[in-house]
């Protein structure tokens, strides 16, 4: 039985447009608690605090140096660590494709997931709508997020009004037209039927980390997570998906494929003050979110902590990264094998079978 420690940083719920926290991160590791205690003593023994938290450590230069040294040491051990992180505005762009474009395209017989078109279109929208600056993209994303969060006739009309505005440049208009065509065939009831947590990234990224451990050959797992985390609110869905009694299935999306059940025997939300393993996961996730924010802001030279974190993370093994949602200007479509079932369909089915809270039992994110 392997214990997986998990924690998150940069959580802003359904607000993926949050300018103060542009990146969300999750960190996991499988170091035994005794080894976690030894690492904490080695790198942070000078920190006079009852609980190690990145938010506290980053306030002092000496502690920041310790964080960088700790990361440089640990992230070269892919057999022990897995992380996942997301550029929130890009994730929101992908949600736009997922919730507005995909259903209409699917009704017309085109599977944007299996064809590999999903992420390519997301990157195209993200970069093309910023050709004249970030104004057009920001306007579309704000209107879309308001629609999904509030789900009122007013926000639906506002979203349609934004996407129906003709862009000045033809290259932007061509891309905006794709969104517009699908938005015009979307009904407000399609949005109101969505789960309340549809824009929440915590569940998806945590699941990707567990899937990565499974793919790496880790068998039966017990997951320990901070009980004060926001993911605890979605425990009903988490337990349904990772349950050892979940139906056997081989599902995938792009190059990502995994076999269910995942081998998670139990998930326990614990007090992080009494589990140093959780504290180390918090440090990694917090540093990852700060590093990502530094990149999103254009790598400002005055932020030396971001630059030092960049050196540490750039030196990490690629196998440490379980999942990354980040915009890239050059993306190659990833087709999903016809042998794999649809990942989202599997999650939806598990959610429908679960004993969900009344407000949340609408589907899945």
How would you describe this protein?
The protein is 47% helix and 14% strand. It is of the alpha/beta class and 365 residues long. Strand 5 and strand 6 (256-260) form a beta hairpin.
As a percent range, the share of helical residues equals: 40-55%
Order of helices and strands: EEHHHEHHHHHHHEHEEEHHEEH
Q: What's the total helix number?
A: 14
Number of strands: 9
What spatial order of strands do you see in the largest sheet? 7-4-1-2-3-8
Largest sheet: 6 strands, mixed
Morphology call: globular
User: Radius of gyration from the CA trace?
Assistant: 21 Å
End-to-end Cα distance:
29 Å
Average pLDDT metric: 88
Beta-strand portion reads 5-15%
Q: Structural class given helices, strands, pairing?
A: alpha/beta
Low-confidence stretches: 358-365
Provide tags for this entry:
14 helices; 3-stranded mixed beta sheet; disordered C terminus; 47% helix; 365 residues; globular; alpha/beta
Please write out the topology.
Blueprint (H helix, E strand, L loop, with lengths): L1 E8 L13 E7 L3 H12 L9 H4 L3 H14 L6 E7 H20 L9 H12 L6 H16 L2 H11 L6 H14 L4 H5 L9 H14 L5 E6 L8 H8 L6 E5 L2 E5 L3 E7 L5 H21 L7 H11 L6 E5 L15 E2 H11 L12
Parallel strand pairs: 1-4, 3-8, 4-7, 5-9
Antiparallel strand pairs: 1-2, 2-3, 5-6
Helix pairs in contact: 3-13, 4-5, 4-8, 6-7, 11-14, 12-13
In short:
The chain has 365 residues and is an alpha/beta fold. Helices cover 47% and strands 14% of the residues.
């Amino acid at each position: 039985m392997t214990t997986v420690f998990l924690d998150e940083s940069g959580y802003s719920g359904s607000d993926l447009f949050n300018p103060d926290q542009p990146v969300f991160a999750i960190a996991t590791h499988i170091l035994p608690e005794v080894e976690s205690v030894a690492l904490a003593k080695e790198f942070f023994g000078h920190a006079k605090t009852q609980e190690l938290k990145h938010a506290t450590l980053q306030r002092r230069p000496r502690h920041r140096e310790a964080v960088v040294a700790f990361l440089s040491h640990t992230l070269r051990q892919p057999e022990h660590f897995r992380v996942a992180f997301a550029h929130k505005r890009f994730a929101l762009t992908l949600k736009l494709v997922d919730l507005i474009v995909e259903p209409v395209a699917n009704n017309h017989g085109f599977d944007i997931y299996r064809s590999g078109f999903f992420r390519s279109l997301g990157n195209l929208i993200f970069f093309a709508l910023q050709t004249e600056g970030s104004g057009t993209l920001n306007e579309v994303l704000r209107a879309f997020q308001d629609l999904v969060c509030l789900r009122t006739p007013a926000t639906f009309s506002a979203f349609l009004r934004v996407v129906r505005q003709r862009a000045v440049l033809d290259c932007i208009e061509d891309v905006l037209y794709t969104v517009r065509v699908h938005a015009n065939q979307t009904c407000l009831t399609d949005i109101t039927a969505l789960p309340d947590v549809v824009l929440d990234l915590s569940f998806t990224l945590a699941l990707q980390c567990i899937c990565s451990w499974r793919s790496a050959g880790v068998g039966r797992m017990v997951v320990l997570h901070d009980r004060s985390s926001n993911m605890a609110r979605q425990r009903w869905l988490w337990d349904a998906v990772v349950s050892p009694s979940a139906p056997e299935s081989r599902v995938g999306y792009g190059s990502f494929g995994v076999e269910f059940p995942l081998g998670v025997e139990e998930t326990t939300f614990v007090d992080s003050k009494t589990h140093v393993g959780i504290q180390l996961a918090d440090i990694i996730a917090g540093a990852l979110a700060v590093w990502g924010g530094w990149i999103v802001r254009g790598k400002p030279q005055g932020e030396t902590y971001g630059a030092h974190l960049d050196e540490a993370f750039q030196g990490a093994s690629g196998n440490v990264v379980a999942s990354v949602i980040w915009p890239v200007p050059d993306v190659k479509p990833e087709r999903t094998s016809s042998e794999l079932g649809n990942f989202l369909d599997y999650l939806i089915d598990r959610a429908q079978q679960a004993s969900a809270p009344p407000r949340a039992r609408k589907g899945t994110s």
